User: What shape does this take?
Amino acid sequence: MAEFQITPEFFWLGLMILCLVIEAATVGLATIWFAAGALAATAASVLGVGILGQILLFFTVSLVLLTFTRPFALKYISPHKIRTNYEDLVDQTVKITECVDNAADSRFSRAGMVSPNVSRRFDIKRRGVGESNCH
Assistant: This one.
């Protein structure tokens, strides 16, 4: 029976695939840099570089990419949370100047900040569909 041996090329390719699978599962830009390092180590192995050189290249490429490209990727590639106008009003006291009817799918409403002498006050809370603010 023939003995099965893993060559360095297959080790690095396997590590790259594992990193890509983890990256696809987490979508957190966590292991993509190590997948690139494993690809560089694979290329080094094919070119005949020794195992110590492959390991050094793997860590060097991974850390350089992690250090210099991750901030860019997080800023420009990752989705940003888009704040809407109502988020600034949550848990604040406001004066409703127009009826807001979620059941009628109102698309427009106005809210002005309440001064201390205003007698009618409403608290803005996140409401579900079908709940009406009209009284």
Remarks:
- Strands lie at 93-96, 111-113, 122-123.
- Residues 114-130 have pLDDT under 50 and may be disordered.
- Residues 8-76 form one domain.
